[in-house]
Amino acid sequence: MTGAARAIALVFFTNGLLLGAWATRIPTVRDELGLSAGELGIALAAVAAGAVLAMPLSGAWSAHAGSRPPTRVMLLVFCAAPVLAAAAPSFGLLLGAGLLLGVGNGALDVAMNAQGATIERRRGRLLLGRLHAAFSAGGLVGAATGALAVGAGLSAEAHLGIAGALGALVVFPLTASLVRGDDDPERAGPRFARPSRPLLALGVLAFCCLLAEGAALDWSAVYVEEDLAADAAVAALAYAAFSATMLAGRLVADRLVAAVDPVVLLRAGGLVAGGGLGVALALDAPAAALAGFALLGAGLSVVIPLTFRAATRRGGAPSLAAVSTLGYFGLLAGPPLVGAVAEATSLGAGLACVAVLAASPLLLGGAVRP
């Protein structure tokens, strides 16, 4: 990789690392504030709401100034936000910190994907799959170290503060090598993309995938710990299993895209993701749940790289922002949806709804056809 490609890969890794670390500490934050399932769903929805609000603005910023400035600025914001959420002393302040966490994550997501697509285009070689693999690797490391931190009794504030400091002090200086967008042809186009029918189809795909990813991030540890009566360290491994298989799938995603029709690849992923999680929920055991989240990660591993690449090719950063925004409504709808179903019936039933949506590529796979 070039210096710019290595730097953006590290940004993706840091994004995943912090999200994975945050996921393992959600039960801790819930217990410290005494939140119900519904209240936790609202707090997690604030994170998604911040992302949805920030994404179009990040796309416009990237279209105007190139993706390098928003990538660098929002990396710093996102490094600070998780520790603020973990340290929130009340439900109200948790909502505010969660909103900031979402703004940092959403804006960084659009900017770093736009930067990756620009580097991919200039190099003339597929890159986004490996970048999303770096994100998944970060999620795996974040979840695994989170499990160790929980087992060791390290506070959530200390754990997330260390992770954020590594991103700000080690990764941020390297982002000086990211490419500038002054000669990027997409900057001559509109700063906001109107959601045409093809972009809407891609957005629905992203919606279903990100809702499922968000469910794994926000609810996997809670489900294994509460509904299946596993200890906290085992529960933290649920997201680690999801991240591990998503990493494995994304490491080979670029080669698979070059060898297999993307529509076929996407539909196969939907079958593995939705079917695997659904069967695991029916078995109702901790080991089965870990396997189910692993299959969910494997099946979804190709969805976002294929969807984001298709969106970028249709109109650069503004189109990417439009699809990302539609997709992140999945994160906005997911936490209260799963929380509401959990309050009315059970968390397992809420995750069964997620399994159905994870199978959506079986119907919508044609949206990524070139």
**Any low-confidence stretches, pLDDT <50, length ≥5?**
182-190
Count of DSSP strands: 0
CATH class: Mainly Alpha
Oligomer: single chain
Q: What would the principal axes of the Cα set say about the shape?
A: globular
CATH topology: Growth Hormone, Chain: A
Question: Care to describe what's here?
Answer:
The protein is an all-alpha fold and 370 residues long. It has a single domain (3-179, 187-368), classed as MFS general substrate transporter like domains (Growth Hormone, Chain: A, Up-down Bundle). Helix content is 82%, strand content 0%. The protein is built from 15 helices and no strands. α8 (232-251) runs parallel beside α11 (286-300) and α12 (303-313) runs antiparallel to α13. The longest helix has 33 residues, at 91-123. It starts with a helix and ends in a 6-residue tail after the last helix. The model is unreliable at 182-190 (pLDDT under 50).
Explain briefly what this protein structure is.
This protein is an all-alpha fold and 370 residues long.
Features:
370 residues; mainly alpha; Growth Hormone, Chain: A
